[in-house]
Amino acid sequence: MRVISSVLTVSLIVMVLVGGTAFAIFNQFESPGPLGAPRTVVIPKGEGRIAIAERLEKEGVITNRWTFVGGYLLQGFLGSRKTTELRAGEYEIKEHASMREVIDTLAEGKSILYKTTLPEGLTSEQIVERLKAEPNLSGEITSIPAEGTLLPDTYYFSKGASRHEILDRMRDGMEKTLAELWEQRDPDLPVRSPEELVTFASIVEKETGRQDERDRVAAVFYNRLRKGMRLQSDPTIIYGIVGGQGVLGRSITRTDIDTKSPYNTYQINGLPPGPICNPGKSTIEAALHPAKTSDLYFVADGTGGHTFSETLKDHNSAVQKWRQVEKQAKAKQGAADAADPDTGTVPIPQGPDSAPKSPVVTKGQKAAKTQTPATSANGADDGSAAPVSSANSTDVPLPVRKPKKQ
Fold it and tell me: Which residues does the annotated region (Disordered) include (predicted)?
């Protein structure tokens, strides 16, 4: 009996001590913390709970590291919620946050989120360069993803997230988008696979920055494919010259137009061998559901949009109207230059081997494309001009003859 009594007494004392300790820990655990103002705390990857507690104590977020660790463990044993691992990230700890609130913030991963916007129309190489320049991301990118495999969008991440993680999310986004949208495509489209669809959509993406025109631009190119006409898209020429760099940095010349390359749709039949950029979801949708038109041509209308035409006669009429817009713009620019010579523009070289400047797409902002896909005669040897027009050009497109079929 004495032994039993002693054991019970010792057990009772231990229980009281444990209970008292637990009560003291939880009391301090739930009490307001020492922070007099909100503070941002960065928890590096790989730190364990003791190292995290030491960091928080040094930065004045908590009063005692061991109370923090003890409370964390006791919360797992006695609390109503299952305790998860403390996560790395950048966190904003509110004023006088208790240890429990700090743990909840770190365990639930409520870190400060940063964002990077990767617009439609960038090449994979341009996207990689943007991610490399993002200071809140970490890790090296050793290879460029295949063109057209990344979904442009705004992506949120915690400080220190991997650049590869963003690329993986972009790849997953494109795969899911294609899987979802491909099955909903209009019947009888002249593209045979999701891969061809992305190539087609990438050309549409580069041709216009206006969402309300994408389905109509897609219709023009589909109509030309069905009739065996070449696409004659300026952006494909640029991609054939500079590839993933995306920017030509000069005017497209007659030599560029006449030079054969796998991507030059003035010289090849059908689609190029692959995408020329990463198209956005809305452009892919436009490519899957083109406008119901018989248009074969389009040219700038002077308002940032385009005039679409079914016949070459109507198209040449629209070209003449665009010529007048260009003349008026040049006259205004000339008057401005005369008033202030220091702000004058550098003239674009003119001559038999020169063509007006093609719009260059930078930072995801696509200039409204003014080039009709049929402003040349497909390299015909009849001496017809093959101008390349742009809203930013100092020249104007000329009337054209009917394009040859493939």
Answer: 327-406
